[in-house]
Records
---
Amino acid sequence: MLSTDGIQDHFPDELLQKKLMRNGFWMYFFAFLIAPTGYLIKIMIAGTLSVEQIGLFYSVLGIISILAAYNDLGLTEALQYYLPHYLIDKKYNESKSIFVYTLILQLVSGILIGSGLFFGAEWLSIHYFKNISTLPLLEFFSLYFILLNISQALNSFFIATQQVKRSQGLEAIRMRTVVVGTGALLVGGYLSLTTFTLLWIGGVIVACLIGFLGLHKLFGGLFTQGKILWDKELFDKQRKYGIWVMIGAGTGTLFGQINQQFALYYLGAQAAGYWSYYLSFYTIVGIVTNPLINYLFPLLNELYKKGHQSKIDHLFKLLFIGIVIFGVVGGIAGYFLAQPIAVLLFGEQFRQSGALFQHYAPFLFTIPLFGILFQDIASRGLVKQRVWILALGLLANTIASFILGHKFGLTGLVYAQLIGNIVLIIGGWYYFRKKK
């Protein structure tokens, strides 16, 4: 649909149910398409690469993933928040400008950190990884890191404009390229640590190329008509939002790690192992809940900007009904099936991880509930408030971990985590009700 100025209208008014069904289909289609790729890749490389090589590869990939999550200074989420506002108001200069700001920052920070990885590869191999075999890996991944930053900027644009098929499709294309390439190299007898690493670079190159083509096809009018404004006030607005996103991301990371570190430091390595596999159940839950929860941010952002309060109320009514159903069905299934699932997926030695999840299963509804409330907060631009809620949740979780963890061990940590989540829900609910 074209607006009066000839630029495609990416936020046309339409039935909420229609939008949810269309985008929901693509969210879950790609979620289930992407989910098994990691396992398929590991199965294919297990017979050719050594355990040490696989361990080194995924250790380096883990470092890259952490750096990629923080090096944008929160500007990608700021882009996702402000871009729909400018597009709805037909402020095409501002829309184009904040995307260019984000892309430039991603490129500059990517090149700087990538160069650090490349030139510091030898030092990191010797002093951090304590294995010189990581030297070529780090050199290859320095290029991968730069390309990944470009891909993230493109993906943020598609997320902001609710182009779910393209935002999720880019990740699916990247991972499927690695899967198909790994299979081809395996069959041809060319699979090695070097060729496997090059495949990951190839995957992100393909994703970037397709991303730019999609951007040109959908937003060519915007980039043709819009002008880049080198406006300090415009950039500062985006930067200030991004800083609070960064602080929130760091606080959220601590919130997710405090129990794991407590288990390792006070209860021992074995307890930490049980806890890490207990957290795998959250990954399983996330496969069901995360696609929808992640979509709420751009959807609510649009609805709040347009002032469609009736649609927002109807959406939350549907969401809360869904939480009740999920809490009852998921809670019962989690309580009775947690141990059998743990044994089936991880082996008899991890039955205790399933037993731990049985304690949380009756409160399973809390996981999607605080996720939904936090997306509501984010979609209204309340990033400072989100940080304070996370900080209070972290404080409650930390205190409860010391008290309950010392007294009841891992079971105590489960309830400490629950207490932290309840604090998040209370804070999120406070701001949810405050808008009424």
---
Amino acid sequence: MTASYRNTLALSLLLVFSLTLPLLGQPAADAVSGITSRQIEGHIRFLASDLLEGRDTASVGERLAASYISNQLSRIGFEPAGDPTEDGRSWFQAFPMHSTTPLLVSSCC
């Protein structure tokens, strides 16, 4: 699992959980009416759409998905806590990454 995939997955899960956080302080009836299955389906359909090209590492689709998720988090009141920028903070955080290439071992003949 690549770091980019893990980041996209983590942001996706954060988005889903963040949609429910504002509802925790509300009575159960209000919480249920606060988010509809249609809204959740819309988020899932967008993140799973062909437009995002599978969200492969370093792809345009990955950047679109990350932008979509950060915009949704911002829309519901979250504040970015990533790397510092000229305007404050980013939704993203750079980190060093090391890659390896597995060796193919053949047991043929």
